[in-house]
Amino acid sequence: MALPLRDPKTIYEEHSAPLSDDEKLRLLVLISESVVGRHGRGGARLADLDGLGRDAWDGVDPDAYVGGLRDEWQGRT
Predict the structure, then answer these.
(1) Which of the residues 52, 57, 61, 76 has the least number of beta carbons within 10 Å of its own beta carbon?
(2) DSSP secondary structure code for residue 47 in this structure
(3) What's the pLDDT tens digit per position in 14-68?
(4) Cα–Cα distance between 65 and 69 in angstroms, integer?
(5) Is the dihedral of CA 19, 22, 24, 27 positive or negative?
(6) Residue 9: which residues within 8 A CB-CB, separation 6 or more?
């Protein structure tokens, strides 16, 4: 029985966001290998990614986001 389609952002927030950075990178490798395996190497071009995931940034203030990253990095030192 197929699972119902779900919003990728919801899947990320529920399952991937809690992972460590190392776990996220390993998951990214698994997903990218899965896509490359289905489509073969050389089938996708960098230009094909233009605009992909744009909706994930809807409502995000870039200055506030970068400021938050800077605060996070300063907190690590």
Answers:
(1) 76
(2) G
(3) 899 999 989 989 998 888 888 877 666 665 677 778 888 888 888 999 999 999 9
(4) 6
(5) negative
(6) 55, 56
